[in-house]
């Protein structure tokens, strides 16, 4: 594995593509290094866009080539096949890869998280109106009350012999899957027996709901608000309602590329840190929204992106809005730090939902997925506030889970066994 502290400092000792255009880095002139980055068109890839468009990468001698893709399985495979050097990646994907889960478990890792927030659960308007009729909702209810109303619909449909609801998430090893299931289970709904869970890539979720192929989905911005403003969806919960600190997207890194290009990876982390700070500054949100609205990136109106960045969500086609504090955070409150405790929480959800067994021997592999040591080595002496520890109790204080429990990293099995709703191990989890 890559060793920053013992890596040679000279950029010409690295492998990889070199652009002839010189850049000044740390007071010296160096050739630009090309870094190919795969991404899905979601707002939480904003740090990558800012690093490329605002000159943070160029300042570190890097030329970022942002390459759009449509699905997370493509992102995984193209990183494995060396078409990408690094990638915009779901937080659970490096953990799954280290545990050899999925159809192509390429063992990547992350030294840098790209931010928090942006996810929401959106149900079809027809389903939400059904919930209103049964539970007397007036539209002001919180996420748990909405979940309990959905439970009434699920139970009524079962009694009447109707087919189960179909709900979509974007990838089996994703924050969307675990947050959707967490919300459902907190309301007493078993996602494996009470309804059908399916997979739809983020850019196709709105089309799938329009075609009535699904009754709801969990995905990152902007697709939830697009469904609302098209008149087909109603937001019923956000990531902040389920767990405000939940890890979201991360920088997935090819270990081979990291070993061949240690200094470039170090410089990339520095560039992304600066870009994340820039993205969190509200004064820059107008420019960020304009950049993200480009068809090469997300390709939706900048006005909608600006509202999402400010946390002002349109949640119902009737025009009801909701202000969500820190709906998206790119650097604040250590949003970029790859907490090992969050990787272990992800593992707890894989166990809970039958994707993996509990195995003490696997814990070191889970820890290898998130690399706070790399983050600390690169940024610890640059004025960035870096936590002195790798793990903490998750869900404590103001960052509570929707079910009120907290997660202690050294008691994974006890945590999982404390859930009333969980799934037996399934040795053949497909993706």
Can you describe this structure?
The structure is a single chain. The chain contains 18 helices and 14 strands. It has 431 residues and is of the alpha/beta class. It has a domain of 234 residues: Periplasmic binding protein-like II (D-Maltodextrin-Binding Protein, domain 2), CATH 3.40.190.10. The strands form four sheets. Strands 1, 2, 3, 4 and 11 form a five-stranded mixed beta sheet that branches. The protein has a five-stranded mixed beta sheet with strand order 8-7-9-6-10, with helices on both faces. Strand 1 and strand 2 form a beta hairpin. Helix 5 crosses helix 6. The N terminus is likely disordered.
Architecture blueprint of SSEs:
Elements: E1 18-25, E2 28-39, H1 46-53, H2 56-59, E3 62-68, H3 72-80, E4 86-90, H4 92-98, E5 116-117, E6 119-124, H5 125-135, H6 143-160, E7 166-169, H7 175-186, E8 196-199, H8 205-210, E9 216-220, H9 223-229, E10 233-238, H10 239-242, E11 249-253, H11 255-260, H12 262-280, H13 285-292, H14 302-309, E12 312-314, E13 321-323, E14 328-329, H15 340-352, H16 363-369, H17 372-379, H18 412-417
Helix pairs in contact: 1-12, 4-16, 5-6, 12-17, 13-14, 15-16
Rg, please? Answer: 21 Å
- The first-level CATH class of the domain at 11-117 and 247-299 and 329-402 is given as Alpha Beta
> Tell me, what's the shape?
globular
Helix content: 25-40%
* Regions with little confidence, pLDDT below 50 for 5+ residues: 1-22
Q: List the total number of helices.
A: 18
Q: Mind summarizing the main beta sheet?
A: 5 strands, mixed
What is the architecture of the domain at 11-117 and 247-299 and 329-402 at the second tier of CATH? 3-Layer(aba) Sandwich
